[in-house]
Structure to design on (592 residues):
């Protein structure tokens, strides 16, 4: 009797867009030959192009492979080498343990079947390789700098000399703009005002022609507005005003890039003083020393006025993140249609926080400059929901109005599906990291359990939204029982918001109920005006609150950990229907 072939998957990856795309094809070919030799049946192939092995973020192929492993779609993973999975000291063993838990064996074409010893040794070697590469890149960069050449990006005001790598010359047209920026800044003009003038005059920004479009590495940016951060930079950044190349001195190695141990995002840290390299390059001077000194004196005085006597920006800020407040991601500007963000802080976590149009406050590309108190907007939304959804006739009218806007929503639905899928994969990765941290401790802290609970709630909400998008229904009917269920959901939501407005479940429920809220510009001290747009699924009696597959305690119990947190699992219910929205009309909130 012939033994059934084991289902297998192949994963391939290469690191940068400078490498050949055929690398993926070559890896697939080698792995396929190995699978055929071992009489495996390849059922899936996954790949990540131009993705670093130092992180698991933004690797859609890896996340899809891990999801297929969790669902039992294959039992053998064939890869060229373990470093194709990860080069990180912590991530590689974590991936190996999870695949092993799901009954997946890793076969490499170079080293055979992976085991605990091989994975441990490879993780150490791969981490050493990353450190070695970083040191060699830093050494090479320092050597190029000492030779009077510029490694990496060329600052605004200069251009590369064709045929001479690393050598630059002054761009006379851009140099005029550089001088103008320094003179206006030294005279007291704000960076935002300077950026707005340059954008309105159609002067190409620093990103034009030198940066590539996000998500499309083959296309250069042809149009980009000026931003005030180009001039002054941010934390540990100098911006144009602090760039000493404009006075003929090249400075390198002032900072180092490191990855956060949990999020794996790159952040800047000040480098040791002995790493700093200064090279005189008088032929590249654009700005007179007196003007450079005056501009930096103006910058220092502004910094002292804003941050205190030492003039240093504090990393810890009293501003809540977008994911932590009730209306995060829902507010839209009526003028430009862009997102609104927290832009002013003057109080506690919610009281005193103000939101404004991001385009207006970041680069003055929108005329909607008024800011709004977040607490009052939040109170107005809760009041609106409680007032309007208690009336069955109003709910029926909202449902009838849905068809008028359905066609305009199709593109938005497709974009949301892609974004939600990416967010779901990231949440699954974060959940696995928290679970891994819990497994490593004898007595898991309540903080970790609370973090797991919050991530699970958001993951379930994202899954609910994806289910809404996948449902196809062109016929809209509103049954009386659906109205009753909708009213019951709203009452439960309002009750939850009254008890604790920061409840993560309440925030997820609001995002399932409301698609977005348009904030209209009004006069100073006038009442706020906004127009909420409701998801049609909520009117159809769909479940507003995300259903948890497993409580936090149960999830920890499945991992072999006992933890008591008094969390009760929700009662399963229907999910919302396909995400389609109807306008709820303009609503007024008292400003005072």
């Amino acid at each position: 009797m012939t033994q059934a072939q084991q289902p297998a998957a192949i994963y391939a990856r290469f690191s940068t867009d400078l490498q050949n795309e055929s690398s993926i094809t070559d890896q697939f070919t080698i792995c396929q030959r190995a699978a055929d030799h071992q009489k495996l049946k390849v059922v899936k192939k996954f790949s990540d192009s131009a993705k670093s092995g130092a992180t698991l973020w933004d690797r859609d192929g890896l996340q899809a492979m891990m999801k297929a492993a969790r669902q039992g779609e294959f039992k053998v993973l064939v890869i060229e080498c373990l470093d194709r999975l990860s080069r990180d000291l912590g991530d590689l063993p974590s991936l190996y343990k999870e695949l092993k838990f799901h009954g997946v064996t890793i076969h490499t074409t170079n080293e055979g079947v992976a085991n605990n010893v091989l994975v441990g040794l490879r993780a150490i070697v791969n981490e050493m390789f990353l450190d070695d590469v970083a040191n060699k890149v830093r050494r090479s960069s320092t050597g190029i700098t000492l030779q009077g050449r510029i490694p990496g990006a060329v600052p605004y005001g200069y251009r590369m000399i064709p045929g001479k790598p690393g050598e630059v010359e002054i761009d006379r047209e851009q140099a005029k703009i550089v001088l103008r920026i320094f003179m206006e800044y030294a005279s007291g003009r704000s960076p935002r005002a300077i950026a707005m003038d340059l954008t309105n005059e159609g002067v190409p920004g620093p990103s034009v022609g030198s940066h590539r479009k996000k998500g499309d590495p083959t296309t250069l940016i042809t149009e980009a507005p000026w931003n005030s951060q180009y001039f002054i930079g941010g934390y540990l950044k100098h911006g144009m005003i602090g760039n000493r190349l404009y006075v003929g001195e090249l400075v390198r190695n002032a900072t180092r890039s490191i990855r956060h141990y949990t999020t794996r995002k790159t952040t800047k840290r000040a480098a040791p003083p002995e790493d700093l390299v200064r090279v005189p390059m008088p032929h590249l001077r654009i700005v007179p020393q007196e003007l450079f000194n005056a501009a930096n004196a103006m910058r220092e005085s502004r910094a002292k006025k804003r941050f205190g006597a030492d003039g240093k920006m504090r990393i810890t800020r009293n501003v809540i993140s977008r994911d932590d407040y009730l209306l995060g991601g829902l507010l839209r500007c009526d003028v430009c249609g862009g997102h609104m963000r927290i832009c002013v802080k003057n109080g506690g976590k919610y009281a005193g926080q103000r939101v404004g149009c991001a385009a207006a406050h970041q680069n003055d590309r929108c005329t909607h400059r008024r800011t709004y108190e977040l607490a009052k907007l939040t109170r107005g939304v809760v009041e609106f929901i409680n007032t309007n959804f208690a009336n069955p006739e109003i709910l029926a009218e909202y449902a009838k109005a849905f068809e008028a806007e359905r066609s305009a929503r199709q593109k938005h639905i497709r974009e949301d599906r892609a974004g939600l899928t990416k967010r779901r994969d990231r949440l699954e990765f974060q959940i696995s990291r928290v679970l891994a941290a819990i497994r490593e401790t004898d007595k898991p802290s309540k903080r970790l359990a609370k973090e797991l609970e919050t991530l699970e709630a958001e993951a379930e909400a994202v899954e609910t939204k994806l289910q809404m998008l996948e449902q196809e229904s062109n016929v809209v009917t509103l049954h009386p029982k659906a109205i009753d269920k909708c009213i019951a959901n709203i009452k439960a939501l309002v009750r939850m918001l009254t008890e604790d407005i920061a409840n993560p479940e309440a925030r997820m429920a609001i995002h399932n109920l409301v698609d977005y809220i348009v904030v209209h510009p009004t006069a100073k001290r006038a009442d706020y005006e906004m127009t909420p747009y409701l998801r049609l699924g909520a009117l159809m009696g769909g479940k507003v609150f995300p259903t948890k597959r497993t409580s936090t305690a149960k999830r920890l119990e499945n991992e072999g950990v006992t933890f008591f947190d008094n969390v009760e699992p929700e009662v399963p219910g229907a999910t919302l229907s396909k995400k389609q929205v109807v306008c709820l009309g303009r609503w007024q909130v008292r400003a005072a």
The chain has three domains: 7-130, 158-307, 324-589. The longest helix spans residues 116-146. The first strand starts at residue 7 and ends at 13.
